[in-house]
Design goal:
Blueprint: H1 2-24, H2 29-37, H3 43-49, H4 55-67, E1 71-76, E2 82-87, H5 95-113
Antiparallel strand pairs: 1-2
């Protein structure tokens, strides 16, 4: 029975981690989240801050991040119409995760390249 308990205990961790990764995983989602978080609001500003992203890929990712309630798309009916993106209050829950990933990435790079 211990084997089954360990298996279930593993699933208790794996399932929510998989759910989280499904939301932020991929080549562009975290860079977009970070770009908007540091103040880039306009489509072109976000795109210019992320080397290599195509407008089509960015539009798709922005839409998905909006569906997951991490970004808000704001349409200002001026002339011309102005569209901006901002973090939702919920997106701020990612700050400690992004900070932890950044710190781990720095330490991992040091570990890989130490002499």
């Amino acid at each position: 029975m211990a084997g089954k308990k360990t298996y279930l205990s593993c699933l208790d961790s794996v399932k929510p981690v998989r759910d989280a990764l499904d939301v932020i995983n991929g080549k562009w989602k975290l860079p977009i989240i970070i770009s908007v978080g540091v103040g880039n609001e306009r489509f072109t500003d976000i795109q210019e801050s992320i080397p290599g992203i195509t407008p089509k890929a960015m539009a798709k990712e922005l839409k998905e991040l909006e569906q997951h309630k991490l970004l808000e798309r704001i349409v200002t009916n001026d002339y011309p119409v102005k569209i901006t993106y901002k973090w939702t209050p919920y997106a701020h829950t990612l700050t400690p995760i992004i900070d932890a990933l950044k710190e781990w990435g720095i330490k991992h790079r040091e570990e890989l390249f130490k002499n």
